[in-house]
Protein backbone atom coordinates (compact mmCIF):
# COMPACT_ATOMS: atom_id res chain seq x y z
CA UNK A 1 0.00 0.00 0.00
CA UNK A 2 2.69 2.34 1.08
CA UNK A 3 4.77 1.55 -1.99
CA UNK A 4 1.90 2.14 -4.28
CA UNK A 5 1.11 5.44 -2.65
CA UNK A 6 4.68 6.55 -3.09
CA UNK A 7 4.82 5.51 -6.74
CA UNK A 8 1.57 7.23 -7.42
CA UNK A 9 2.59 10.48 -5.74
CA UNK A 10 5.83 10.76 -7.58
CA UNK A 11 4.15 10.30 -10.91
CA UNK A 12 1.57 12.90 -10.10
CA UNK A 13 4.14 15.52 -9.15
CA UNK A 14 6.47 14.90 -12.08
CA UNK A 15 3.98 14.69 -14.92
CA UNK A 16 3.44 18.44 -14.70
CA UNK A 17 7.03 19.26 -15.57
CA UNK A 18 9.07 18.01 -18.51
CA UNK A 19 12.13 19.20 -20.36
CA UNK A 20 12.10 19.44 -24.14
CA UNK A 21 14.86 17.39 -25.71
CA UNK A 22 17.17 20.31 -26.49
CA UNK A 23 16.21 22.04 -23.26
CA UNK A 24 17.28 19.02 -21.28
CA UNK A 25 20.72 18.78 -22.86
CA UNK A 26 21.34 22.48 -22.45
CA UNK A 27 20.13 22.51 -18.87
CA UNK A 28 22.27 19.51 -18.01
CA UNK A 29 25.27 21.24 -19.63
CA UNK A 30 24.22 24.33 -17.66
CA UNK A 31 24.44 22.25 -14.50
CA UNK A 32 27.83 20.77 -15.30
CA UNK A 33 29.49 23.90 -16.70
CA UNK A 34 29.94 26.35 -13.89
CA UNK A 35 32.39 27.46 -11.26
CA UNK A 36 33.80 23.96 -11.35
CA UNK A 37 35.23 24.65 -14.80
CA UNK A 38 36.25 28.27 -14.44
CA UNK A 39 37.21 28.63 -10.81
CA UNK A 40 37.93 25.25 -9.30
CA UNK A 41 39.47 23.41 -12.24
CA UNK A 42 42.29 25.94 -12.79
CA UNK A 43 43.28 26.11 -9.15
CA UNK A 44 43.26 22.36 -8.53
CA UNK A 45 45.18 21.86 -11.78
CA UNK A 46 47.67 24.48 -10.64
CA UNK A 47 48.06 22.82 -7.30
CA UNK A 48 48.17 19.17 -8.31
CA UNK A 49 50.48 18.95 -11.29
CA UNK A 50 49.39 21.01 -14.31
CA UNK A 51 49.07 19.10 -17.60
CA UNK A 52 49.57 15.69 -16.06
CA UNK A 53 46.66 16.42 -13.75
CA UNK A 54 44.55 17.55 -16.68
CA UNK A 55 45.20 14.23 -18.39
CA UNK A 56 44.17 12.31 -15.31
CA UNK A 57 41.03 14.39 -15.08
CA UNK A 58 40.12 13.49 -18.67
CA UNK A 59 40.69 9.78 -17.98
CA UNK A 60 38.54 9.91 -14.82
CA UNK A 61 35.85 11.81 -16.67
CA UNK A 62 35.67 9.17 -19.39
CA UNK A 63 35.97 5.92 -17.48
CA UNK A 64 34.17 6.87 -14.27
CA UNK A 65 32.27 10.12 -14.75
CA UNK A 66 30.42 9.41 -17.98
CA UNK A 67 29.18 5.90 -17.04
CA UNK A 68 27.85 7.28 -13.75
CA UNK A 69 26.29 10.28 -15.47
CA UNK A 70 24.37 7.94 -17.77
CA UNK A 71 23.42 5.73 -14.83
CA UNK A 72 22.08 8.67 -12.81
CA UNK A 73 19.94 10.01 -15.62
CA UNK A 74 18.68 6.49 -16.32
CA UNK A 75 17.71 5.92 -12.69
CA UNK A 76 15.90 9.27 -12.61
CA UNK A 77 13.95 8.59 -15.77
CA UNK A 78 13.21 4.96 -14.89
CA UNK A 79 12.23 5.74 -11.30
CA UNK A 80 10.32 8.92 -12.16
CA UNK A 81 11.20 10.93 -9.12
CA UNK A 82 13.83 12.58 -6.91
CA UNK A 83 16.78 10.53 -5.65
CA UNK A 84 14.86 9.00 -2.79
CA UNK A 85 11.72 8.13 -4.77
CA UNK A 86 13.61 6.71 -7.75
CA UNK A 87 15.82 4.40 -5.71
CA UNK A 88 12.84 3.36 -3.65
CA UNK A 89 10.68 2.59 -6.68
CA UNK A 90 13.34 0.78 -8.70
CA UNK A 91 14.58 -1.33 -5.80
CA UNK A 92 11.06 -2.61 -5.28
CA UNK A 93 10.43 -0.49 -2.21
CA UNK A 94 13.65 -0.82 -0.18
CA UNK A 95 13.86 1.88 2.45
CA UNK A 96 17.62 1.53 2.61
CA UNK A 97 17.95 2.56 -1.02
CA UNK A 98 15.31 5.22 -0.40
CA UNK A 99 17.61 6.75 2.23
CA UNK A 100 19.89 7.89 -0.61
CA UNK A 101 17.60 10.89 -0.89
CA UNK A 102 18.68 12.11 2.52
CA UNK A 103 22.32 11.77 1.64
CA UNK A 104 21.78 13.79 -1.55
CA UNK A 105 20.10 16.53 0.37
CA UNK A 106 22.85 16.78 2.90
CA UNK A 107 25.38 16.92 0.06
CA UNK A 108 23.36 19.53 -1.84
CA UNK A 109 23.21 21.80 1.21
CA UNK A 110 26.90 21.50 1.82
CA UNK A 111 27.82 22.22 -1.80
CA UNK A 112 25.43 25.13 -1.92
CA UNK A 113 26.98 26.61 1.22
CA UNK A 114 30.26 27.38 -0.49
CA UNK A 115 29.16 27.35 -4.13
CA UNK A 116 26.80 30.27 -3.53
CA UNK A 117 29.64 32.14 -1.82
CA UNK A 118 31.93 31.91 -4.85
CA UNK A 119 28.96 32.67 -7.11
CA UNK A 120 28.44 35.79 -4.98
CA UNK A 121 32.07 36.80 -5.56
CA UNK A 122 31.43 36.71 -9.31
CA UNK A 123 28.56 39.18 -8.87
CA UNK A 124 30.80 41.53 -6.91
CA UNK A 125 33.45 41.28 -9.62
CA UNK A 126 30.83 41.98 -12.30
CA UNK A 127 29.90 45.26 -10.63
CA UNK A 128 33.52 46.18 -9.88
CA UNK A 129 34.51 45.57 -13.45
CA UNK A 130 31.68 47.44 -15.18
CA UNK A 131 32.25 50.42 -12.88
CA UNK A 132 36.00 50.32 -13.50
CA UNK A 133 36.76 50.18 -9.75
CA UNK A 134 38.47 46.83 -10.18
CA UNK A 135 41.16 48.36 -12.39
CA UNK A 136 42.06 51.33 -10.20
CA UNK A 137 45.76 51.45 -9.52
CA UNK A 138 47.17 51.15 -6.01
CA UNK A 139 46.96 47.57 -4.92
CA UNK A 140 47.52 44.30 -6.72
CA UNK A 141 44.66 42.03 -7.78
CA UNK A 142 45.73 39.63 -5.10
CA UNK A 143 45.41 42.32 -2.43
CA UNK A 144 42.06 43.38 -3.83
CA UNK A 145 40.72 39.85 -3.67
CA UNK A 146 41.94 39.39 -0.12
CA UNK A 147 40.55 42.66 1.09
CA UNK A 148 37.13 41.83 -0.40
CA UNK A 149 36.88 38.31 1.01
CA UNK A 150 38.07 39.33 4.45
CA UNK A 151 35.06 41.62 5.01
CA UNK A 152 31.30 41.11 5.28
CA UNK A 153 30.29 41.94 1.68
CA UNK A 154 30.57 38.30 0.58
CA UNK A 155 27.59 37.46 2.82
CA UNK A 156 25.42 40.03 1.08
CA UNK A 157 26.42 38.81 -2.40
CA UNK A 158 25.84 35.23 -1.39
CA UNK A 159 22.35 36.22 -0.19
CA UNK A 160 21.61 37.94 -3.52
CA UNK A 161 22.71 34.83 -5.37
CA UNK A 162 20.40 32.66 -3.26
CA UNK A 163 17.55 35.08 -3.87
CA UNK A 164 17.94 34.78 -7.65
CA UNK A 165 18.34 31.02 -7.54
CA UNK A 166 15.32 30.53 -5.30
CA UNK A 167 13.34 32.94 -7.49
CA UNK A 168 13.80 30.83 -10.61
CA UNK A 169 13.25 27.51 -8.83
CA UNK A 170 9.86 28.84 -7.71
CA UNK A 171 8.90 29.03 -11.40
CA UNK A 172 9.68 25.38 -12.05
CA UNK A 173 11.48 23.41 -14.71
CA UNK A 174 10.00 24.73 -17.92
CA UNK A 175 9.47 28.26 -16.62
CA UNK A 176 12.68 29.79 -17.95
CA UNK A 177 15.71 27.61 -17.35
CA UNK A 178 15.67 26.30 -20.92
CA UNK A 179 15.53 29.67 -22.66
CA UNK A 180 18.16 31.02 -20.35
CA UNK A 181 20.62 28.23 -21.13
CA UNK A 182 20.18 28.62 -24.87
CA UNK A 183 21.62 32.14 -24.70
CA UNK A 184 24.10 31.53 -21.98
CA UNK A 185 26.05 28.53 -23.23
CA UNK A 186 27.06 29.96 -26.65
CA UNK A 187 27.44 33.50 -25.25
CA UNK A 188 29.84 32.34 -22.60
CA UNK A 189 31.87 30.37 -25.14
CA UNK A 190 32.34 33.39 -27.39
CA UNK A 191 33.60 35.59 -24.56
CA UNK A 192 35.89 32.82 -23.40
CA UNK A 193 37.38 32.47 -26.88
CA UNK A 194 38.05 36.21 -27.04
CA UNK A 195 39.77 36.01 -23.69
CA UNK A 196 41.75 32.96 -24.71
CA UNK A 197 43.12 34.84 -27.67
CA UNK A 198 44.10 37.74 -25.38
CA UNK A 199 45.78 35.59 -22.78
CA UNK A 200 47.66 33.48 -25.33
CA UNK A 201 49.19 36.61 -26.82
CA UNK A 202 50.44 38.04 -23.52
CA UNK A 203 54.22 38.09 -23.02
CA UNK A 204 55.34 34.85 -21.38
CA UNK A 205 52.11 33.08 -22.30
CA UNK A 206 53.90 30.06 -23.74
CA UNK A 207 55.20 29.06 -20.34
CA UNK A 208 51.65 29.00 -18.99
CA UNK A 209 50.31 27.07 -21.96
CA UNK A 210 53.00 24.44 -21.61
CA UNK A 211 52.35 24.14 -17.87
CA UNK A 212 48.78 23.30 -18.76
CA UNK A 213 49.32 21.19 -21.88
CA UNK A 214 52.73 19.50 -21.58
CA UNK A 215 52.49 16.74 -19.02
CA UNK A 216 55.31 16.26 -16.56
CA UNK A 217 54.41 13.01 -14.83
CA UNK A 218 56.99 13.48 -12.12
CA UNK A 219 54.70 16.15 -10.65
CA UNK A 220 51.97 13.61 -10.00
CA UNK A 221 51.41 11.84 -6.74
CA UNK A 222 48.64 9.62 -5.42
CA UNK A 223 46.79 12.66 -4.21
CA UNK A 224 46.62 14.16 -7.72
CA UNK A 225 44.90 11.05 -9.05
CA UNK A 226 42.37 11.09 -6.30
CA UNK A 227 41.68 14.81 -6.58
CA UNK A 228 41.23 14.33 -10.35
CA UNK A 229 38.58 11.72 -9.69
CA UNK A 230 36.81 13.84 -7.08
CA UNK A 231 36.84 16.80 -9.43
CA UNK A 232 35.31 14.77 -12.25
CA UNK A 233 32.36 14.13 -9.93
CA UNK A 234 32.06 17.77 -9.03
CA UNK A 235 32.41 18.97 -12.58
CA UNK A 236 29.76 16.62 -13.98
CA UNK A 237 27.44 17.30 -11.00
CA UNK A 238 27.42 13.64 -9.94
CA UNK A 239 26.80 11.67 -6.78
CA UNK A 240 24.28 13.96 -5.16
CA UNK A 241 21.05 13.27 -6.99
CA UNK A 242 21.19 16.31 -9.25
CA UNK A 243 21.49 14.62 -12.67
CA UNK A 244 19.13 11.98 -11.36
CA UNK A 245 16.49 14.59 -10.52
CA UNK A 246 16.96 16.27 -13.93
CA UNK A 247 16.66 12.80 -15.52
CA UNK A 248 13.24 12.39 -13.95
CA UNK A 249 11.97 15.31 -16.05
CA UNK A 250 13.19 13.79 -19.33
CA UNK A 251 10.92 12.36 -22.03
CA UNK A 252 10.99 8.68 -22.83
CA UNK A 253 12.04 9.37 -26.43
CA UNK A 254 15.26 11.19 -25.48
CA UNK A 255 18.52 9.32 -26.13
CA UNK A 256 20.35 9.35 -22.81
CA UNK A 257 23.52 7.98 -24.39
CA UNK A 258 23.81 10.97 -26.74
CA UNK A 259 22.97 13.33 -23.90
CA UNK A 260 25.82 11.83 -21.86
CA UNK A 261 28.33 12.41 -24.65
CA UNK A 262 27.13 15.97 -25.23
CA UNK A 263 27.36 16.86 -21.54
CA UNK A 264 30.79 15.24 -21.17
CA UNK A 265 32.14 16.98 -24.25
CA UNK A 266 30.70 20.35 -23.19
CA UNK A 267 32.17 20.09 -19.73
CA UNK A 268 35.62 19.19 -21.01
CA UNK A 269 35.62 21.89 -23.66
CA UNK A 270 34.87 24.61 -21.11
CA UNK A 271 37.55 23.28 -18.77
CA UNK A 272 40.12 23.24 -21.59
CA UNK A 273 39.40 26.80 -22.63
CA UNK A 274 39.34 27.96 -19.00
CA UNK A 275 42.83 26.52 -18.57
CA UNK A 276 44.04 28.28 -21.72
CA UNK A 277 42.69 31.55 -20.37
CA UNK A 278 43.98 31.29 -16.83
CA UNK A 279 47.46 29.72 -17.02
CA UNK A 280 49.06 31.96 -19.66
CA UNK A 281 47.82 34.95 -17.64
CA UNK A 282 49.03 33.50 -14.35
CA UNK A 283 52.53 33.00 -15.75
CA UNK A 284 52.59 36.27 -17.58
CA UNK A 285 51.83 38.16 -14.35
CA UNK A 286 54.15 36.16 -12.16
CA UNK A 287 51.33 34.71 -10.07
CA UNK A 288 51.65 31.28 -8.51
CA UNK A 289 49.57 28.54 -10.24
CA UNK A 290 49.08 26.92 -6.82
CA UNK A 291 47.63 30.15 -5.38
CA UNK A 292 44.40 28.46 -4.28
CA UNK A 293 40.77 29.57 -4.28
CA UNK A 294 41.49 33.15 -5.42
CA UNK A 295 43.48 32.14 -8.53
CA UNK A 296 40.84 32.99 -11.16
CA UNK A 297 39.88 36.20 -9.37
CA UNK A 298 43.48 37.37 -9.37
CA UNK A 299 44.43 36.27 -12.87
CA UNK A 300 41.40 37.30 -14.91
CA UNK A 301 41.32 41.01 -13.96
CA UNK A 302 44.99 41.14 -14.96
CA UNK A 303 44.08 39.87 -18.45
CA UNK A 304 41.20 42.32 -18.77
CA UNK A 305 43.30 45.28 -17.70
CA UNK A 306 45.45 44.67 -20.79
CA UNK A 307 42.56 44.91 -23.24
CA UNK A 308 40.89 47.91 -24.73
CA UNK A 309 37.41 48.10 -23.24
CA UNK A 310 38.69 45.66 -20.64
CA UNK A 311 36.23 46.95 -18.05
CA UNK A 312 33.39 46.06 -20.42
CA UNK A 313 34.68 42.62 -21.41
CA UNK A 314 35.55 41.97 -17.79
CA UNK A 315 32.09 42.92 -16.61
CA UNK A 316 30.49 40.80 -19.31
CA UNK A 317 32.73 37.89 -18.51
CA UNK A 318 32.02 37.93 -14.78
CA UNK A 319 28.34 38.35 -15.49
CA UNK A 320 28.32 35.28 -17.71
CA UNK A 321 30.33 33.44 -15.10
CA UNK A 322 27.74 34.42 -12.50
CA UNK A 323 25.02 33.09 -14.78
CA UNK A 324 26.94 29.86 -15.40
CA UNK A 325 27.27 29.47 -11.65
CA UNK A 326 23.62 30.26 -11.34
CA UNK A 327 22.48 27.52 -13.78
CA UNK A 328 24.55 25.05 -11.75
CA UNK A 329 23.12 26.41 -8.52
CA UNK A 330 19.61 25.86 -9.89
CA UNK A 331 20.32 22.18 -10.33
CA UNK A 332 21.76 21.91 -6.82
CA UNK A 333 18.80 23.66 -5.22
CA UNK A 334 16.32 21.55 -7.18
CA UNK A 335 17.51 18.46 -5.28
CA UNK A 336 16.25 19.46 -1.79
CA UNK A 337 13.29 21.36 -3.25
CA UNK A 338 11.97 18.34 -5.17
CA UNK A 339 12.53 16.23 -2.07
CA UNK A 340 10.55 18.61 0.17
CA UNK A 341 7.73 18.82 -2.36
CA UNK A 342 7.36 15.10 -2.45
CA UNK A 343 8.08 14.30 1.18
CA UNK A 344 5.85 16.86 2.82
CA UNK A 345 3.56 17.59 -0.12
CA UNK A 346 4.56 21.26 0.01
CA UNK A 347 3.93 23.50 -2.97
CA UNK A 348 6.95 24.29 -5.17
CA UNK A 349 6.81 27.89 -3.97
CA UNK A 350 6.88 27.05 -0.29
CA UNK A 351 9.65 24.47 -0.73
CA UNK A 352 11.79 26.82 -2.82
CA UNK A 353 11.48 29.72 -0.38
CA UNK A 354 12.15 27.73 2.77
CA UNK A 355 15.01 25.72 1.30
CA UNK A 356 16.68 28.85 -0.15
CA UNK A 357 16.55 30.59 3.22
CA UNK A 358 18.06 27.57 4.89
CA UNK A 359 20.79 27.37 2.23
CA UNK A 360 21.61 31.02 2.76
CA UNK A 361 21.98 30.52 6.52
CA UNK A 362 24.09 27.39 6.09
CA UNK A 363 26.38 29.31 3.72
CA UNK A 364 27.17 32.26 6.01
CA UNK A 365 30.02 30.55 7.91
CA UNK A 366 31.65 29.62 4.59
CA UNK A 367 31.33 33.20 3.35
CA UNK A 368 33.13 34.46 6.44
CA UNK A 369 35.89 31.90 6.46
CA UNK A 370 37.96 32.91 3.42
CA UNK A 371 40.16 35.36 5.27
CA UNK A 372 37.17 36.82 7.13
CA UNK A 373 36.25 36.71 10.84
CA UNK A 374 36.04 32.92 10.81
CA UNK A 375 39.22 32.59 8.76
CA UNK A 376 41.35 31.59 11.73
CA UNK A 377 39.04 28.79 12.70
CA UNK A 378 40.71 25.99 10.81
CA UNK A 379 40.58 22.61 12.51
CA UNK A 380 42.92 20.18 10.77
CA UNK A 381 44.38 23.04 8.71
CA UNK A 382 41.15 23.61 6.78
CA UNK A 383 38.72 26.49 7.08
CA UNK A 384 34.95 25.92 7.11
CA UNK A 385 34.90 26.73 3.40
CA UNK A 386 37.65 24.18 2.74
CA UNK A 387 35.93 21.53 4.83
CA UNK A 388 32.65 21.91 2.97
CA UNK A 389 34.46 21.50 -0.32
CA UNK A 390 36.58 18.63 0.94
CA UNK A 391 33.73 16.62 2.46
CA UNK A 392 31.44 17.04 -0.54
CA UNK A 393 33.93 16.59 -3.38
CA UNK A 394 36.09 13.85 -1.92
CA UNK A 395 33.76 12.01 0.44
CA UNK A 396 30.03 12.50 -0.13
CA UNK A 397 29.96 12.78 -3.92
CA UNK A 398 32.21 9.77 -4.52
CA UNK A 399 30.13 7.84 -1.98
CA UNK A 400 26.90 8.83 -3.73
CA UNK A 401 28.51 7.83 -7.04
CA UNK A 402 29.48 4.47 -5.58
CA UNK A 403 25.87 3.79 -4.61
CA UNK A 404 24.80 4.65 -8.15
CA UNK A 405 27.34 2.23 -9.67
CA UNK A 406 26.37 -0.60 -7.33
CA UNK A 407 22.68 0.00 -7.83
CA UNK A 408 22.90 0.05 -11.62
CA UNK A 409 25.52 -2.68 -11.85
CA UNK A 410 24.08 -5.18 -9.40
CA UNK A 411 20.59 -4.29 -8.15
CA UNK A 412 18.46 -2.85 -10.93
CA UNK A 413 18.46 -5.42 -13.71
CA UNK A 414 16.63 -3.42 -16.35
CA UNK A 415 18.96 -0.43 -16.46
CA UNK A 416 20.21 -1.29 -19.98
CA UNK A 417 16.72 -1.13 -21.47
CA UNK A 418 15.98 2.23 -19.90
CA UNK A 419 19.38 3.61 -20.97
CA UNK A 420 18.76 2.34 -24.51
CA UNK A 421 22.11 0.51 -24.72
CA UNK A 422 22.69 -2.83 -26.45
CA UNK A 423 25.58 -5.08 -27.43
CA UNK A 424 29.11 -3.83 -26.85
CA UNK A 425 28.18 -0.42 -25.49
CA UNK A 426 25.93 -2.05 -22.90
CA UNK A 427 28.63 -4.53 -21.89
CA UNK A 428 31.26 -1.82 -21.63
CA UNK A 429 28.97 0.39 -19.58
CA UNK A 430 28.07 -2.38 -17.14
CA UNK A 431 31.71 -3.46 -16.81
CA UNK A 432 32.77 0.08 -15.95
CA UNK A 433 29.93 0.34 -13.45
CA UNK A 434 30.46 -3.04 -11.85
CA UNK A 435 34.22 -3.16 -11.65
CA UNK A 436 36.29 -0.15 -12.70
CA UNK A 437 34.31 2.71 -11.19
CA UNK A 438 33.64 1.10 -7.79
CA UNK A 439 37.30 0.17 -7.32
CA UNK A 440 38.52 3.64 -8.17
CA UNK A 441 35.89 5.31 -6.01
CA UNK A 442 36.69 3.11 -3.04
CA UNK A 443 40.33 4.21 -3.39
CA UNK A 444 39.30 7.86 -3.30
CA UNK A 445 37.02 7.26 -0.42
CA UNK A 446 39.55 5.43 1.69
CA UNK A 447 42.15 8.04 0.96
CA UNK A 448 39.77 10.87 1.78
CA UNK A 449 38.84 9.56 5.15
CA UNK A 450 42.49 9.10 5.89
CA UNK A 451 42.55 5.33 6.08
CA UNK A 452 45.34 5.06 3.56
CA UNK A 453 48.44 7.10 4.16
CA UNK A 454 50.50 7.91 1.09
CA UNK A 455 54.06 8.85 1.57
N1 LIG B 1 29.13 20.94 -11.92
C1 LIG B 1 29.05 22.21 -11.33
C2 LIG B 1 30.27 23.02 -11.73
O1 LIG B 1 31.15 22.52 -12.37
C3 LIG B 1 28.90 22.16 -9.84
C4 LIG B 1 27.82 21.26 -9.35
C5 LIG B 1 28.11 20.27 -8.43
C6 LIG B 1 26.52 21.40 -9.83
C7 LIG B 1 27.12 19.40 -8.01
C8 LIG B 1 25.54 20.53 -9.40
C9 LIG B 1 25.83 19.54 -8.51
O2 LIG B 1 30.39 24.15 -11.41
User: Which small compounds were modeled alongside the protein?
Assistant: phenylalanine
Give the name of the CATH architecture. Answer: Up-down Bundle
Q: Main sheet, how many strands, which sense, barrel?
A: none
Domain count, please report it: 1
Task: Characterize the structure shown.
The chain is mostly helical and 455 residues long. The protein has a single domain, classed as Amino acid/polyamine transporter I (Up-down Bundle), CATH 1.20.1740. It is built from 20 helices and no strands. The protein has helices at 2-14, 21-32, 35-48, 51-79, 83-90, 95-98, 100-130, 141-149, 153-171, 177-200, 205-213, 222-235, 242-247, 256-284, 295-305, 310-344, 348-367, 384-411, 415-419, 423-448. Helix 2 packs across helix 16 (310-344), helix 4 (51-79) packs across helix 18 (384-411) and helix 4 packs across helix 20 (423-448). The chain starts with a helix and ends in a 7-residue tail after the last helix. The structure holds phenylalanine. Phenylalanine (PHE) binds at residues 31-32, 34-37, 111, 234-235, 237, 240, 242, 328, 331-332.
Attribute tags:
20 helices; mainly alpha; Amino acid/polyamine transporter I; disordered N terminus
Indicate the topology.
Blueprint: H1 2-14, H2 21-32, H3 35-48, H4 51-79, H5 83-90, H6 95-98, H7 100-130, H8 141-149, H9 153-171, H10 177-200, H11 205-213, H12 222-235, H13 242-247, H14 256-284, H15 295-305, H16 310-344, H17 348-367, H18 384-411, H19 415-419, H20 423-448
Helix pairs in contact: 2-10, 2-14, 2-16, 3-12, 3-14, 4-5, 4-12, 4-14, 4-18, 4-20, 5-7, 7-9, 7-16, 7-17, 7-18, 8-15, 9-16, 9-17, 10-14, 10-16, 11-14, 12-18, 12-20, 14-15, 15-16, 16-17, 18-20
Amino acid sequence: MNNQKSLHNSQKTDSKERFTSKGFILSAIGSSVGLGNMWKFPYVTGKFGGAAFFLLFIICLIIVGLPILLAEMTIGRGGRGNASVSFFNLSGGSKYWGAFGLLSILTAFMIMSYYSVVAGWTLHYTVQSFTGLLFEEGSSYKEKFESFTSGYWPVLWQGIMMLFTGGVIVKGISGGIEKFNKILIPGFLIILLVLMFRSLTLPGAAEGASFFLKPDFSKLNAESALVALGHSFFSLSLGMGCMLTYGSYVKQTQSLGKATLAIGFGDLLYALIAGLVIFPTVFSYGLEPGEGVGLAFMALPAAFSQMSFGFFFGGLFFLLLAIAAFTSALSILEVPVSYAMHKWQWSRKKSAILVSILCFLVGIPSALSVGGVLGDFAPGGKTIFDWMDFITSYVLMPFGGLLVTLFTGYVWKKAGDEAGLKGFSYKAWIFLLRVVAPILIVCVFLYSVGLIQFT
